[in-house]
Structure formats: structure tokens, C-alpha cells
Specification:
The protein has 340 residues and is of the alpha/beta class. It is built from 11 helices and 16 strands. The radius of gyration is 23 Å and the shape is elongated.
Length: 340
């Protein structure tokens, strides 16, 4: 069932339509239909990215009972669209509720007020912020105040370092909010690749004497996050945007090289005094990473599939994990120090 409401000011009409739809679903049923277990708030402001975001939001909402509130700032819609659907899961009936609001002409206070009034009370609120900026947006600040979990993608619309720096500063100001970044979550396969280099005890000493780190990627966030992750694992301290100091006092040079597609890493090179460790996408197959060691510890470790995880799976994982993730947070803090 779908209803269009011309004005965003008609909160009572919107809520009444949701109530009526639930009531009609329950009529003639032995047990009442289940409602939302979370408020899923999605903000989108990029017309080119809009379909990608909304398709994945709909998939997530279809798997987890929720009130999906779409704040659409792309000018694609005017007014409010209210939709409800009922589906059977075993012996239960689940009502999915979705409210799409055209917010391109609303100020930040009105957007936040609408979201508060339309959210189901006393359940978790997850905010998926796909906007370009974080701290520069008063809308983000207002929505973050009502959220228990926030999901961003710092390698999305904005491809420079400003987004990830904003995210670090936000984390500093609101450390209790559960925060996830798809850009960091996508890096798990590369983190595993780097760890594979040093599974061999003969190579393990080199990880504590690294002198350089080169990362090729299509977006800034992936390179900075990988550097921050490795630095935080090895107790490095950032001394400049392109350098760390290791725990022995040695300098580790960091080079971020723009190459390849957005949201993708192309290669990671670790320099030790007498050896170079390289993990790079294969020239023949972009789904395969080849691992080589050159120099004193020369070794061909072969090529292995890059286990990329679909974005919808990452989004779902972020939503379901309602606890802070310490490895991500320490990596983000290291990146924040690196960016200054």
C-alpha cells in the first residue's frame, strides 16, 4: 500500500497512514503483525549515487523489520511517499514501513525534527549517511544526535582526505556512538593479505623493521585506512602526513599513490632494510592478488583470490553489530594523527 502526501508538514497524516496500514494488516489475523525493530534512516544527496543507496537500503529493510526513513535531498521527489507491505515469516506476519521524504528544500532543523517525529520510540536508530561531508553538515550533526549507530562511506562521493578527517573529529566529539565506515570494512581482505607475508617465522622479524609503506588506491580513504590499521597494529606514531615513527624510533615513510578505480586498492608495498614485500592486483585478473618478496628474503608466494565482500553484506554487518569496534577506532585515530 502506498500513499503520497504533498506536504512534509503533515506529520499527523503520515503517522495516521502508518497506523491505519498496520491495523488493516492485523484484521482477520489470529496474532498481531510484528512491527519495526529499528529505525533505519538513510540520507542521500547525490543523484548519481541515489539508486545504488536506495536499492541496498531496501534489501536491508526487507530482511530486518524496520521503519525505513529515506531523507532524499536529490530533488528526485517532492512531498512524502508512505508505503507499507506485509510478509509472512513462519507463523508471523511482518509489516515493513517506508517513508520517503523530499528534503532538498528543507533546512537542517526541519529535517531533524521530521526524523524524530517519524521514528518509532524506544528502539534503535541506525543512520546511513551517504552525504559528502560530515562535520560541515548541520543536518548530519542533528541526525547523529538521535542515532545509536552511524554508517558512512568515506570513499563515496568525496574522494579526498577531508571526509575521513571529519569522521575522526566527529569520533573524538562523540566517542560513545557506534561508528562504521564501509571504506574500512572493505579492506579486510587486504589486511589478511598483508598478514600472510609474515606467517613464515623467517620473515616475521622484518615486520618490526619496516622503513616504508606504499599504497596505490583509487580513493584516499582506503590508503589512509590501511596505513592507519598497520600503524596502529605495530605501535607506530604519525609524525607527518607521509611518515611514522616506529616503536624503536625509526622512521617509516608512507606514500599514497592515486591509481585505479574508486573504492579499490591496487597494491601494497612494504619496504624492509633488505627485502621488499609486494601485494598487487594481477594484470590478468583484477580479482586476484599476487604476493612476492624481493631481496634477501626473496620468495614467490603465488596468487590468491581477493575475497571482496559485497557492499550489501557489509552494510548489514554494520547494522547488526551494535558494539564499538576497537580495531576500526584505533585505525581511525591513527589516520587522524596522520592527517593532522
Amino acid at each position: 500500500m502506498m500513499t503520497h502526501i504533498d506536504s512534509t508538514n503533515e506529520i499527523g497524516t503520515i503517522l495516521e497512514q502508518l497506523r491505519r496500514s498496520r491495523q488493516e494488516t492485523n484484521e482477520g489475523r489470529a496474532s498481531c503483525a510484528r512491527g519495526a525493530t529499528m529505525n533505519f534512516v538513510v540520507f542521500v544527496d547525490d543523484p548519481q549515487h541515489r539508486s545504488w543507496v536506495l536499492e541496498r537500503a531496501a534489501i536491508i529493510a526487507g530482511k530486518h523489520p524496520s521503519r525505513l526513513i529515506v531523507l532524499d535531498s536529490t530533488q528526485a521527489i517532492r512531498g512524502v511517499d508512505v508505503a507499507t507491505t506485509a510478509r509472512e515469516i513462519g507463523d508471523s506476519t511482518v509489516v515493513d514501513e517506508r517513508v520517503d521524504i523530499g528534503v532538498s528544500e528543507l533546512d537542517h532543523a526541519a529535517i531533524v525534527s521530521l526524523t524524530r517525529e517519524l521514528s518509532v520510540p524506544d528502539i534503535a536508530t541506525v543512520l546511513w549517511w551517504s552525504g559528502a561531508r560530515v562535520r560541515a553538515s548541520r543536518t548530519f550533526a542533528g541526525l547523529a544526535a538521535v542515532a545509536t549507530t552511524i554508517l558512512v562511506d568515506s570513499s563515496g562521493k568525496a574522494r579526498d582526505a577531508e571526509t575521513i578527517r571529519d569522521l575522526y573529529r566527529f569520533h573524538e566529539s562523540a566517542p560513545s556512538i557506534v561508528l562504521h565506515d564501509l571504506a574500512f570494512m572493505r579492506l579486510a581482505p587486504w589486511q589478511e593479505m598483508i598478514a600472510q607475508f609474515f606467517d613464515d617465522p623467517a620473515l616475521r622479524d622484518d615486520i618490526f623493521s619496516l622503513t616504508g609503506l606504499d599504497i596505490e588506491s583509487g580513493s584516499d580513504a582506503e590508503a589512509f585506512y590501511l596505513a592507519g590499521w598497520l600503524g596502529s597494529r605495530l605501535s607506530w606514531n604519525a609524525t607527518a602526513r607521509d611518515a611514522f615513527r616506529d616503536r624503536r624510533g625509526g622512521v617509516v615513510r608512507f606514500a599514497k599513490i592515486a591509481k585505479g578505480d574508486q573504492r579499490r586498492v591496487s597494491s601494497v608495498v612494504l619496504h624492509a632494510p633488505n627485502s621488499t614485500y609486494r601485494a598487487a592486483l594481477s594484470d590478468d585478473d583484477s580479482g586476484v592478488v599476487c604476493l612476492t618478496v624481493e631481496g634477501r628474503n626473496a620468495k614467490n608466494l603465488g596468487c590468491v583470490p581477493l575475497q571482496n565482500i559485497e557492499n550489501t553484506t557489509l552494510i548489514e554487518r554494520a547494522i547488526l553489530e551494535n558494539a564499538r569496534e576497537s580495531i576500526f577506532e584505533t585505525s581511525l585515530e591513527t589516520v587522524g594523527q596522520l592527517l593532522g
